[in-house]
Amino acid sequence: MILAAGQGTRVRPLTKDLPKPMVPILGKPVMEYLIEHLARHGVTEIMVNVAYYHQKIEKYFGDGRRWGVQIGYSYEGIRDHGDILPRPKGSAGGMRRIQDFSGFFDETTLVLCGDALIDLDITAALAEHHAKGAIASVVALDVPLADVPNYGIVVAAPDGRIQSFQEKPEPAAAKSTLASTGIYIFEPAVLDLIPPATIYDIGSQLFPQLVEKNLPFYAQSRPFNWIDIGRVSDYWSVLQRVLRGEVAEIKMPGNQVKPGIWVGLNTAIPWDKVKIEGPVYIGSSVRIEPGATITGPAWIGHGSHIRTGAKVVRSILFEYTRIAADMRFSEMIVSPEYCVDRHGDTLYRGDDTAQLRWGDARA
Asked: CB–CB of 202/184 below 8 Å?
């Protein structure tokens, strides 16, 4: 089960007209990496709950055959005065809705959020879940004590049995440094504990039930990469890590023409008149004028145009972005319509108060 019905408000404007699982990482939606990873571990039947901009997820992934899996969708919404409006049912409520419809969750089920990059050993996690006879498992990561205010914290006994949860505690009050990663393993009996036709959350409502009923509910603590795109600043950081080659199983596209520099097809780059320091990916049909500078880690989306004297430093340009002459964009995410700095502050094209100039390379 991939949870993909959320609105993604914390990463706006990236999700202004795009569902969060479709936010691109190296030109591919983040959810595509999840599906590829599931397929590698033999997980081939995948349900996705959708709501906001659901057509974009469904059109891109279709029935899943390109990845060797089967994908189904459960739309969560209502009819209001003739309009169809998205109304997510909550992470647990969405699962119960699917179960009531078809009984789909008839064996051990892995639950993932559609907006995170992971390289979890799924096979080992499932084996541990079964070995402990768990009805439910939470995959957790040990985080530095100073970081616990950013996470839901799992408090577990030495054998891993979960005793309680703390939601973003201050370090002095934290009873644990195990952070929930939003990766869960459920047996079918868990679905019976979710009330039907109700908005219901896994973390804040279902899990306390499991603890209260003293059911075999365990935390798994295992090393793996978990990169959650919770905020715009996270997205910028993720791209920097990926471009530096720090995330397993994500390879740079294009052809490597110089150390640390990859390019797509049909580019117009006067190599002896520009300064490019990797790691940098330059997409297809990109035009870079003489005197421009690109300092990596940087991603230049296809169809983009960087004018004379412009400087792009540790930034991401979405496709068809034009950077005006002599402009400096440092540590930013830039699209034809808006640019966002690494802290989440946003400027929109045409804002007279903005000192930066950029636009749509197709215009």
From this structure: yes
